[in-house]
Design brief:
By secondary structure, the chain is an alpha+beta fold. The protein has 3 helices and 7 strands. It has a single domain (about 1-110), classed as Jelly Rolls.
Length: about 110
């Protein structure tokens, strides 16, 4: 199942909470595999929101099951403001994911 498809508008970004996805591009084919683990929750789809651009890859679920969280464009803009400062948005996305995903999961295990 495709989560996002290359060349389509970006309306959300995603956090891989459980499972595996494959990153593919039309130009390069299979580029890499993202795997969620107890301490690592990869995210994808942020570039289309940050740069207000089309998707630059197709992301396909590779595992038998996957849990994927999403943040839509409206929520993203409410959190980070208008998308006109894209050079700052990438860093802000990383900080949000650290706080939203990593910190609560560490607190939960304590």
């Amino acid at each position: 199942m495709d989560v996002i498809r290359e060349g389509t508008p970006g309306d959300a970004l995603f956090i891989l909470y459980k499972g595996e996805v494959v990153v593919k591009t039309l130009a390069q084919g299979r580029v890499k595999i993202l795997h969620a683990s107890e301490n690592d929750f990869p995210y994808f789809g942020e570039q289309a929101l940050v740069k207000d651009d089309l998707r630059n890859a197709t992301i396909t679920v590779e595992s038998d099951c996957a849990e994927i969280l999403s943040i839509d464009r409206d929520t993203f803009e409410q959190l980070l403001g208008p998308l006109k400062y894209s050079h700052l948005k990438s860093r802000m996305v990383e900080m949000i994911f650290f706080r939203v995903v990593t910190v609560p999961s560490k607190l939960h295990r304590s």
